[in-house]
Amino acid sequence: MDTKLTLKLNENIIEKAKEYAKSKKISLSDLIENYLQKLTDDKKSKNRITPLVKSLSGVISLPKDYNYKKDYTDYLTNKYK
Question: What end-to-end distance do the CA atoms of the chain give, in Å?
């Protein structure tokens, strides 16, 4: 069920939002509704780990004193010699 909502916003923001919605070929109402939907969605869905990433977790183990910055610097130095 759709319900009317009245908002007070800066006129410049409204105009920019209208232009953006028009460029995306959606109504301003739909744009705001989609934004609010994403904003209020369960936070868990944002941090969901895909099955592929989950399957790769723990594949390698590195020493606690591993310096990835040094290794990456060495790699780039060799690459661009």
Answer: 64
